[in-house]
Amino acid sequence: MTPYEMGKNLLMKLQQWGKSTTSMCFASLAIALMDSETLVYEYLPNQSLDKLIFPASSKDHITLNWKKLHDIAMGIAKGLEYLHQGCDQQILHFDIKPQNILLDHNLNPKIADFGLAKLCSKEKSVVTMTEARGTMGYIAPEVFSSNFGKASHKSDVYSFGMLLLEMVGGRKNFDAKASNSQVNFSEWIHQQLNEGEELKIRIEEDDDIIIARKLAIIGLWCIQWNATDRPSIKVVTQMLEGDGSNLTISPPFTARYTTHVGAGVIACPSSEELTMISELE
């Protein structure tokens, strides 16, 4: 099945489930069945999140304040919570990354690109897969290799955590051209927080460092190696809603396998995008 066919089937099922249209989720409006089959999307003038958090990626870069970054993070988390718990069936996205977060005219986030998504019952706690799927730098360990367990809704939480850390750092967590010391981005953030060092981020108001620290701590909890150690997206939303004063820094971690999966880096494959896979139902 092609990515388009998977996306079309997913959207048709969502229409059957009552035209799910949460404001923080995907922006598809309809499927046009004329001479050709076309997906129709809401127009989102601010493009994708990567254009805003990675200055080098866009000459029309917009500087976001930390309050707006926090609001965007909250919107993404609530959108994921809806996918995981708000539909008749659980929807696992498997490709959460800044490029797949679209922004409307008010910079409200919309989760997009469901080409790799997986539908499963809410009672099903894990998904069996034969091969990794997603984008390097955002793939949870258990999605990359079955040696780390089974894929589940916690795999999306991992990807969301890497996205949060990129929002804090204003840079990509994955750089195939950089040395190992440069690429271990999440480990560097953990070390800075654990030692009480500054994150070397842009601070304009007194509350900025509080917001940045909160996002960083939550992001680090989301990328724990063992899925059981990660919070659910519902708990993540609750953490974001709090003031961050009660948040503790996650345990230290080190790279445990020999390829890029966000925090661990030794070598990388030739292609950034991994192929879609077939599942064992």
TrEMBL record:
Residue ranges occupied by any Protein kinase domain in the UniProt entry: 1-254
Keyword line: ATP-binding, Glycoprotein, Kinase, Membrane, Nucleotide-binding, Serine/threonine-protein kinase, Signal, Transferase, Transmembrane, Transmembrane helix
Alphabetical list of InterPro entries matching this protein: Kinase-like_dom_sf, LRK10/LRL21-25-like, Prot_kinase_dom, Ser/Thr_kinase_AS
SUPFAM superfamilies membership: Protein kinase-like (PK-like)
Lipid bilayer topology: Single-pass type I membrane protein
Entry annotated with the keyword Kinase: yes
GO MF terms held by the record: ATP binding; protein serine/threonine kinase activity
PROSITE patterns, A to Z: PROTEIN_KINASE_DOM, PROTEIN_KINASE_ST
Cellular-component GO terms for this entry: membrane
Keyword Glycoprotein: yes
Superkingdom of the source species: Eukaryota
One family name in Pfam for this protein: Pkinase
Compartments it resides in: Membrane
This protein's name: Rust resistance kinase Lr10 isoform X1
Organism phylogeny: Eukaryota, Viridiplantae, Streptophyta, Embryophyta, Tracheophyta
Gene that this polypeptide is encoded by: LOC107808885
